[in-house]
Design brief:
Layout (H helix, E strand, L loop, with lengths): L2 E10 L5 H11 L3 E6 L3 E8 L1 H13 L6 E9 L8 E3 L20 H7 L43 H8 L20 E5 L9 H10 L4 E4 L4 E6 L3 H11 L8 E2 L3 H4 L3 E2 L2 H7 L6 E6 L15 E5 L4 H6 L7 E5 L11 H8 L5 E5 L11 E5 L2 E6 L8 E8 L2 E3 L9 E10 L9 H18 L5 E5 L5 H7 L5 E5 L1 H12 L6 E11 L5 E10 L2 E8 L2 E2 L4 H5 L1 H13 L7 H4 L3 H13 L5 E2 L2 H11 L11 H9 L12 E3 L8 E4 L1 H12 L4 H27 L3 E5 L6 H13 L3 E3 L11 H14 L4
Parallel strand pairs: 2-5, 7-14, 9-12, 11-15, 18-20, 20-21, 22-29, 24-28, 29-30
Antiparallel strand pairs: 1-3, 1-4, 2-3, 6-14, 7-8, 8-13, 9-13, 10-11, 11-12, 15-16, 17-19, 18-19, 22-23, 23-24, 25-26, 27-28
The structure holds zinc ion (2 copies) and fe (iii) ion (FE).
Length: 761
């Protein structure tokens, strides 16, 4: 008996080796029929004995190619056609096929096997890839995704590669970056004067690294700067040359077993490390930390990734427990990705260069993730994730959302998907300005859309706001910063109802022209009410208060004690003139804007706890305050008070002066920074919880969304999430996009999409 079935499959099934996979399965079970790509996914017809058809379908669902995933599966019995073979048909509806660019991904197990197999013709070839793995987004120059529109257009396939490319049964069928040592890209090794060095480039590179030199290594989305992570002097030298005072360096190890020699890795973290996206994962350092202590000063975590390019596999083959692989740039400049530019910009930093002749078309930094509340959280969404779409609640006009000022990403929508860009970087930096427009144009081209609406932050002085004013033929919309954070969290969770939003971050421009950053909202993407916020504090010196947390600490002390400041070391270190000046600034409002920022509150407490008076990067004081917390302390939360709204339209205010008095007491009694940190974190979590209960009473809301850069803090997030869930709340947190400004553009787009679909009255 023979039967025939039609299968309609939707999901990530194009450009990921799905058709050759189906072809091979059909031959395994000696089935006849066909497979083809259509605009929605893949359509398969199979004919054969019923047991074989069932076995085929089972295998289809359980043995998927690594980059593929199925979201819809329909099966239908159809009339027999008595085919004699199984064939791959040409795609139906060619005009409809819209770009399906995959992110850059890892080295698949099959390619890794071949890479280290002396019998294989690609033995030790650093550019091995197949339809299941390899570079994509970073080499694409246009659409449709086809070899001539990638940087592999520079190379002509040799007959053997071409025959794999043409063979439906091959793992390299239509693998656009397909190459081998005879026809593909090659490595070069040269010194900082650009002189090629004789010999095997890979061996030269490893020798240099082993002797403590700094090597700039061309990767997938840009250059890395590499040194041996166990060599203190080398790491120190890299730090000095990069002008990177204290920012942690990421490392790469070959296998999980090596990572476990210097970091604690739980199951979720191990899975994230080994995922096809291969992000940098923040892991807790082992107590006995065997790598250089210079990697992440004052930090209990270390950023780790596993190899994601064949070149990395070869580099790490036996010599190193870990290599520092930090982005190839100086301080906060964008990562270098073009060869000439890299040679110039990195010449003062790197001793040597390991380059190659496959061009990187578009720069893409490494992604950074951390496990929080038992699930992965992206802190920087870039290589490996971009340009994967995020589902919006409904179809709508195309929107370009420009994002924020720091950690910028932008977002383009098409249909019911939002495409968040890779990490663009710090738009305070003029170097980044140049690439901003180019990156936008490139994504527009890949998605084949012309946005009708452009969204920018409410802040009049952001680069993105000025950029939007220079655009023509589009309608501009401004979205409040924390509303965008709120909407970002709701959108990635697919939640459209009303919720309480707790939005804690550094700084954002408020509706009232003040600096916001510790906000409690009720609403959703449609709109919001600011139902509460942290009580405002003065930021004496404006921007200087952000770089110098001692200013925030004194501001809080003056707010709490007035003229009668307690005898704390922080106070004693100031000269009478300094104190007088600061007091005048605050009292007369000279260069002392008011802020409800939670980030600044963290800074103030870190300075009060005597951890840090100045910072060298954004969020450093807050991070070190979290690090200082001894995990085992079960201290009482500090006292706090919610002040009820004083006038119509004003919200509740969280008064922290009771906490400041209690901190002073703790300090006078010799309390450690660890205790202050624990009590502070518990106070914030408790205050939020109390507020959510009030909102539940008042508005019958049971759903709470957490967003903003402060929620990169694991302790606060977990305390709050556990507390709220235990009390019957549904808590929405970020996972797909960062809670920091790297996720802002998604929320901006979501707010605009709502307003343009169903305008608010
Ligand atoms: Zn592969
Ligand atoms: Zn070849
Ligand atoms: Fe923000």
């Amino acid at each position: 008996m023979v039967t025939r079935c039609r299968l309609e499959i939707e999901g990530v099934v194009q450009g990921v080796g799905f058709r050759p996979f189906v072809y091979q399965l059909a031959s395994r079970f000696t089935l006849t029929g066909s497979v083809l790509n259509d605009s929605r996914g893949v359509e398969i017809e199979i004919e054969g004995e019923p047991w074989a058809v069932d076995a085929f379908i089972k295998a289809l669902q359980t043995e998927l190619p690594p980059l593929a995933s199925i979201s819809q599966f329909r099966r239908e019995e159809v009339a027999l056609k008595h085919d004699t073979v199984f064939i791959i048909l040409a795609s139906r509806n060619q005009i409809e096929t819209r770009a399906q660019i995959s992110p850059d991904t890892w080295v698949c197990p099959d390619c890794r096997e071949e890479l280290f197999n002396p019998e294989d013709r690609r033995f030790r070839y650093p550019f091995i890839n197949c339809t299941n793995c390899g570079p994509r987004y970073s080499i694409v120059t246009g659409v449709p995704y086809d070899r001539p529109l990638t940087t592999m257009a520079d190379f002509t396939m040799c007959p053997r590669c071409q025959s794999e490319y043409d063979d439906p049964a091959s793992r390299r069928f239509h693998a656009q970056p397909n190459a081998c040592p005879d026809c593909g890209p090659q490595l070069t090794f040269y010194d900082s004067d650009g002189r090629d060095l004789p010999g095997d480039p890979l061996k030269n590179c490893r020798d240099a690294l082993r002797s403590g030199d700094i090597v700039a290594i061309k990767g997938i989305g840009g250059y890395h700067l590499a040194v041996d992570a166990s060599n203190d002097a080398a790491v120190q030298r890299l730090r000095q040359r990069k002008l990177r005072d204290e920012k942690p360096f990421a490392v790469m190890s070959r296998r999980l077993a090596q990572v476990m020699t210097y970091a604690e890795v739980d199951k979720t973290e191990a899975k994230l490390l080994a995922s096809v996206e291969r992000p940098i994962v923040l892991l807790r350092q082992k107590n006995e930390f065997i790598l250089s202590s210079q990697l992440a000063p004052h930090n209990r975590y270390v950023g780790v990734m596993l190899p994601y390019a064949p070149l990395h596999e070869l580099l790490l083959e036996e010599d190193f427990v870990a290599l520092v692989m930090t982005s190839g740039n100086r301080s906060d400049e964008p990562i270098a990705f073009e060869d000439n530019e890299a040679r110039q910009r990195l010449a003062g930093i790197a001793d040597y260069f390991l380059g190659h002749d496959r061009r990187i078309h578009i720069r893409t930094d490494d992604s950074i993730a951390r496990v929080m509340a038992k699930r992965p959280l992206l802190l920087r969404r870039s290589r490996g994730y971009v340009p994967r779409g995020i589902l919006l609640p409904a179809e709508g006009p195309s929107i370009l959302a420009l994002g924020g000022e720091l950690k910028n990403t932008f977002c383009l929508t098409r249909g019911d998907r939002a495409y968040l860009s890779q990490h663009v970087g710090d738009l305070k930096n003029p170097e980044t300005h140049d690439s901003f427009g180019r990156l936008i144009d490139h994504l527009k081209c890949l998605l084949d859309v012309q946005p009708q609406y452009v969204v920018h932050d409410l802040h009049p002085d952001y680069f993105t706001t000025r950029f939007s004013e220079g655009l023509s033929g589009v309608e501009l919309l401004a979205v409040q910063h924390h509303h965008a954070h709120f909407a970002s969290c709701l959108t990635e969770n697919g939640y459209e109802g009303e919720a309480v939003g707790i939005i804690f971050d550094g700084i954002g421009y408020g509706d009232d022209g003040h600096i916001w950053g510790g906000e409690f909202f009720v609403g959703n993407a449609n709109g919001y009410h600011r139902v509460g916020h942290l009580q405002e504090m003065a930021m004496p010196g404006g921007d200087a208060a952000t770089r110098e947390p001692w200013r925030m600490a004194l501001s809080l002390l003056i707010q709490t004690y007035g003229d009668d400041l307690p005898e704390l070391p922080l106070v004693q270190r100031r000269t009478p003139q300094e104190l007088k000046l600061l007091r005048q600034m605050i009292e007369q409002g000279i260069n002392s804007p008011l802020t409800s920022s939670c980030g600044r509150l963290f800074d103030a407490v870190a300075a009060l706890a005597d951890l840090r008076e100045q910072v060298s990067y954004e969020g450093q004081a807050a991070l070190e305050l979290e690090m200082a917390l001894c995990s085992k302390t079960l201290e009482e939360p500090y006292p706090f008070e919610w002040l009820s709204p004083t006038e119509q339209g004003k919200g509740w205010q969280l008064d922290v002066t009771p906490m400041v008095r209690a901190i002073t007491n703790d300090l006078n009694e010799g309390g450690s920074a660890g205790i202050i940190s624990a009590r502070f974190h518990r106070m914030l979590a408790e205050a939020c919880h109390v507020f959510c209960r009030m909102m539940r009473q008042e508005y019958s809301l049971h759903t709470v969304a957490l967003s903003g850069g402060v929620f990169q803090n694991r302790t606060l997030t977990e305390l709050l999430v556990d507390g709220l869930r235990g009390d019957g709340f549904t808590v929405l947190t970020h996972s797909l996009v960062p809670p920091n400004d790297g996720g802002l553009a998604l929320g901006q787009a979501a707010v605009a999409a709502r307003q343009k679909k169903d305008p608010l009255k």
